[in-house]
Amino acid sequence: VQSAIEEQKDIVKAQQIAIKGLEEQLEFNRDNIRLLIEKKTAAMREKIDSETLLHSNNQKKKDLQSDVSKLEKSLDSLTLETRNTRPILDQTTKRRKDAQTTLKNTE
Question: What pLDDT does 1 receive?
Answer without folding.
Answer: 86
